[in-house]
Write a structure and sequence with these properties.
By secondary structure, this protein is an alpha+beta fold. The chain folds into three domains: 156 residues, Chondroitinase Ac, Chain A, domain 3 (Sandwich), CATH 2.60.220; 119 residues, Immunoglobulin-like (Sandwich), CATH 2.60.40; 88 residues, Death Domain, Fas, CATH 1.10.533.10. The chain has ten helices and 25 strands. A seven-stranded mixed β-sheet has the order 1-2-4-5-8-13-12, with no helix packed on it. The protein has a six-stranded antiparallel β-sheet with strand order 3-6-7-14-10-11. The protein has a five-stranded antiparallel β-sheet with strand order 18-16-17-23-21, with helices on one face. A hairpin with a 5-residue loop joins β16 and β17.
């Protein structure tokens, strides 16, 4: 695990709404696309990077959690006058006890002083389904104290125009001509994981760009345009909906793409640009140079590894056991305040001094302790 600010979230529409801070970001100990996520943590405040789930514990805990489908509960939600406001998460406590759990949501309430009254939590248990009030609503989460566990998700009252935090997910086909799929979706980690699995199965790869900086209104129409004169965008416009399994997407096709080009998302209702970024040639052209072919994996991905490796202490323990690092070197690295500084010290000291054998050992340890990160860097 690593202490860092975590995913960057921003929204100019609700900047005045409270958001809690100081969460330790954790990757699930076990995570595959088909199986539940699994995390263990000593006392502290944690946020799962994959699901957005947060928890607070005073003792050691083990959690198992996975995304569930809203589909069986749609009729019930509609009859109670609510609609989904985030992912539905099925959480199980394996060991220990939680003081708080914070469920992610994508609703944006702006300056509405009554927004807490519009939010509820859906509880799915063996004995039935219930809708309950929440302890606290922040910009991106709702808090539940001393939770009992089941499938839980955030609900928002129907009957008023709902603005949501959104993301534009871009995927590129491995094809002779540039082909992009652009999904405009509410900010829901279950949707992102489902689209990632689907697109990767077709051989598409992700292109990461910042999300819109203001919230967008559900069921409004949006158009996607590019600065490339030869680009084809279909459909020309699309309605913002919530579909956590099969959302629609814009397909962008450019036969002669060989330079940077701009992409803009425009609100047809308000007539303003809500997302505007440059797709650089380096984003969609992947020609491996001779110099990068000669680089070791840990050198080629040095920047990503410094920023994203979480389990520095367990890695150092294993490196010490392999005698890649001395006791003095171990203490020097651990004395650094942040995981990023610790990783920089590891690169500048032991890995530089010990050469290719040390890098091979380091790489094997990374595959064991940071498997998701290594797979992501390898494009798997």
């Amino acid at each position: 695990m690593c202490l860092s600010p975590g995913p960057v979230r921003s929204c100019t529409t609700c900047a005045n709404v409270m958001e809690s801070t100081n969460w330790v970001q954790v990757e699930p100990v076990v995570f595959t696309e088909e199986a539940p996520m699994f995390s263990t943590s000593p006392p502290g405040r944690y946020e799962c990077r994959v699901s957005g789930l947060r928890w607070v514990c005073k003792t050691y805990v083990s959690l198992q959690y996975q995304f569930s489908s809203w589909e069986p509960h749609r009729a019930m939600m509609k009859s109670f006058g609510y609609k989904q406001g985030g992912p539905l998460l099925d959480v199980t406590i394996i060991a220990g006890e939680l003081e708080e759990v914070h469920l992610p949501h994508f609703a944006c309430f702006g300056n509405d002083p009554s927004f807490k009254e519009k939010v509820r939590v859906l509880h799915v248990e063996d004995c039935g389904v219930s809708v309950e009030q929440v302890e606290e609503v922040t910009r991106f989460h709702i808090k539940i104290l001393h939770p009992t566990f089941s499938a839980k998700g955030v609900l928002v009252r129907s009957g008023f125009p709902l603005k949501v935090h959104c993301d534009l997910l871009l995927y590129q086909a491995k094809a002779a001509f540039l082909t992009l799929h652009a999904y405009l979706v509410p900010w829901d980690s279950s949707v992102e994981q489902a689209m990632k699995k689907k697109e990767h199965s077709y051989g598409y790869r992700s292109i990461r760009k910042p999300q819109p900086v203001k919230s967008l209104r559900m069921k409004d129409w949006f158009s996607l345009t590019t600065s490339s004169p030869s680009a084809e965008v279909k459909p020309p416009k699309m309605k913002l909906r919530y579909d956590n399994t099969t959302p629609n997407f814009f397909e962008v096709f450019i036969e002669d793409a060989d330079v940077d080009f701009g992409m803009k998302l425009i609100s047809d209702v308000e007539g303003e640009i809500v997302w505007d970024h440059t797709i650089q040639k380096a984003d969609f052209r992947h020609k491996t140079t001779q110099s990068s072919q000669n680089l070791h994996f840990v050198d080629l991905h040095r920047t990503d590894l410094i920023q994203r490796v979480c389990q520095v202490k367990p890695i150092l323990d294993k490196i010490l056991a392999k005698r890649v690092i001395t006791d003095e070197g171990y203490s020097t690295v651990m004395a650094k305040r942040t995981t990023q500084d610790q990783m920089r010290e590891l690169y500048m000291g032991p890995l530089r001094a010990s050469g290719i054998k040390a890098k091979n050992i380091f790489y094997e340890i990374l595959k064991e302790l940071e498997p998701l990160l290594i797979k992501d860097l390898k494009g798997e």
